[in-house]
Amino acid sequence: MADTEKTPEGTEEAKPGKRGFLGIVIGIVLALVLGGAGFFAVYSGLVLGPVSESDAGEENAGVTPKNLPPVAFVPLDPLVISLGPSSSHDHLRFRAELEVIPGTEADVRALVPRVMDVLNSYLRAVEPSDLENPVSLIDLRAQMLRRIKLVTGEGRVKDLLVMEFVLN
Length: 168
Fold this sequence. Notes:
This protein has 168 residues and is α+β, with helices and mostly antiparallel strands. It contains 6 helices and 6 strands. It has helices spanning 18-44, 53-59, 105-110, 112-125, 128-132, 137-152; strands spanning 4-6, 12-14, 72-75, 79-82, 91-100, 157-167. Helix 4 runs antiparallel to helix 6 (137-152). The N and C termini lie far apart (87 Å).
């Protein structure tokens, strides 16, 4: 009864001595052992390891790729835009292609001069700081696509593919 103590009500309570300390030590040792085992399993490739080529070949043996939907592209002439004195760069070289609905290529090619005019006007009006920010390319592309769809009409152009966007 060295580990217990009498309370005034006459009941015995266990002292938090050796039992609490022993539980903490066992918990720490188990955590270290399981952590080491987990590290070894991941490091050696037993868990989350790379898939061997034979396994990948067996998985893809019966799968045939789906046919891509028909697409057509209309290339646009390259543009060189002067950026002015407020920019740290002199020129912007821009080249793009339009992804169009198959069968409308001739209609869109006939409207390429208008498309080039819209792109040229828009890119000259954009602040040079917006051109230099890599994140703003997404917004620029969306704005250009919206303007192109206005010129070509709805249902002809699907997307604007930026092939070259270089600041000199």
